[in-house]
Every structure is written in C-alpha cells, then in structure tokens.
Amino acid sequence: MKQILFVDDESKLLDGLKRSMRPMRDEWNMMFVSGGEEALKMLEQAPFDVVVSDMRMPGMDGAQLLNEVQRRHPQTVRIILSGHSDQQMIFESISATHQFITKPCETEQLKATIRRACALRELLKDDSVRALVAGMQTIPSLPALFAEIKKEVESESSSLKTIGNIMAKDMGMTARILQIVNSAYFGVRGPVSTVEQAVSFIGLDTIQALVLTSHVFSQFQVRSASAFHVDRLWTHCMETGALAREIAKAEGLAPVQIDQAYTAGLLHDVGILMLAANRADQFSAMFAEASAKGKAVLEVERSEFGITHAEIGAYLLGIWGLSDPIVEAVAYHHRPGDCPGEIVSPLTAVHVANVLQQECSQLATEDVLSKLDMAYLDKLRLTDRLPRWRELAGVLRKEQTND
Q: What is the pTM of this model?
C-alpha cells in the first residue's frame, strides 16, 4: 500500500483533503500534517512514497520543505500545490519538485497525479530496463552546458545576458541553437542573431531543451556506426516537439506543461538512439524483421530486447533528473492508455504529435507507422479534436517545407 503524506497549514483545506481523499483509503495509507517541520518528523519515523505540499506556509514553506525532503529522502515523490502568484517560489523549488499542480485543483486531478507518479516509479524500476541500460557502452552524459544554464535559471539574479555568456562558451552549440530558432519550427518573425534574442523569443526552458537535444543527437551522430539515419530522426523529433507544443496550447494546458510537451516531443525517441548506438546489428535486423513480417516495431523491440525504446529513453531521462511529466510522456508515448489517470497532459500532446507528424511527413513506411490510441482519446473525450490537430500538423509541415 502506498504511503502518502499531505502538508497544508490551513486546517480547513487540510480537512477538505481528508474528506476528498477518503475513497482512496483502501489503496493508500494517508497522513495529514499542518507544517513542514511536522512533515519532516513524520518522514524520519516512516518512509513515504509521496509528499504533497502546499506552497505558501508560515515558517518552512513548500519550496523549503521539498528541498529538504529531496536532501534527506531522495526516493520520495515530491508534489507541490501552488497558486498562480507563486512563480518565484516555484523557481526556488523547481529542482526538488517532481510535479506542480495549480490551485484550486479538482480532486480527480490530484488523485491522477499521485497515481501517475507512482506508476512511473514502478516502470523505471523494471529490472529489464536497468539490465539493458547497464550493459550499454554508449550512453550520453548530461551536458555541462545544460546543467550550468539550469543553475542560472534557478538563480534569483538570472538574466538573459548571463545566459548568453554561458552559451557563448560553446560556439558550436550557439550556432546550432540560432540555426534552429531561425527555422520554421518557431515561426519567429525576422532574423534572430544573438542568444539573448533567442531566449527572449522562445524562453529559457526551450533553450535548455534545445541544448539537451542537440547534445544527445550530435553525440550519437559521431559514435553510431550503423546505417541508421540520425538526421531523419532529428527532423522527426524536432517536428514532433513543435507540433506537441501547438497541441498543448490548443488544449489550454498551463505554460509549464506546454514547455514540457515540447521538450518531451524533442526527446521522445532518445531510446532509439541508444539502441542504434549500442545494438546496431540487432537494431537493423529488427527493422528488417518488422518490415518482412508486417509486425509493429514495438512488438519486435519487446521480443528482441524485453522492453522498447520508450522505456529505455524514459529511464535515461529519469536518471538525468528531468521532470516527471517529460519522463512520463517519453515512457508512454506509444501506449498512453497504460498510464493511469484521465487528464489531458504533455503525454497526450506528444502521443498525438508523434503520429500526426509521421502522417504528414510520410517518412515512415506503413508497417512501422505509429497508431493513435483512439480508446485513450475517447476516454479523455478528445476524438472530436483530431481535425483541429491535423490542421495544426498540416500548417507546421507546410511552414517547415517552405523554410
């Protein structure tokens, strides 16, 4: 039984949580406390799977609490309930928080978030994933530039000028970022000639995502000796990220979720790169078998390796410390219906974008083309949104073709 700890200093809100979570008592063992110090005492007495904390509390606020939980109990899933006015406090807790939920939130959303976080932990603890990744010799490291920019973003004195100076340390990466930002993927009007301009147009989160993705692809491009087309996969991931972002916007997701959808779209097939670089012969044979026998690539991957590229990629991103919604979208982008909960999320955007990008580009052959999970979309009451999403995909594809 999962152990869940709720923290909120307002007694009425805490009582409301108790009532709303009562139906979960057969599934979760829940404790409710009124402050950060009390929460830390509870954690010292017994292990908890999840801590859900309000952001604004007297004494030790939510950001301080979760940073302390991260230090003392790193295995615990950490979730923040925050209001729209808590932006600065969110920045202070961004590295210590797995999930952010905006207040007020529906009970079902909170339940779904906790369930999904627990399910993701179980997926990433799968022995077959760990064994395969442990045996790989070519695994990209987290780029130092990404970590440095992330640290600066979280700093109270963060500035575009400082970010530009950090980026300038790697001229190759700077050139790559400017090339991408000036492409049709972003639809920026007029040329962007400096990193400062790029950040102001597309945001710090997107800059970090591009740095991370460019690093991964360039590293594998050098090391991979197979006939696998890295450039083609790069194009697919760039277009999937751009489309996922537009779908997330169209569905009214929060800005942080829109950024997460974009990043997850960029990185959703990183597991394919890992397989291509470390299991080149098996990887090539796998695609040949899928084509010859009319099988889905995922089916052959699971038969050949015991898992698929989705779980491999999610495991890597989880090790790197990317946020849960990004890791979740990568892990389940082919089978979103297996992810608990019935809420629209970055996963929804990435799943749809991955399929529609292939439909538009026609780069994939029919036998390896991903399929939309219509049961999942129907459960979320989104099937009537397909025409709009296909329209968005068509517009983006046209812009990118004319770039």
A: 0.67
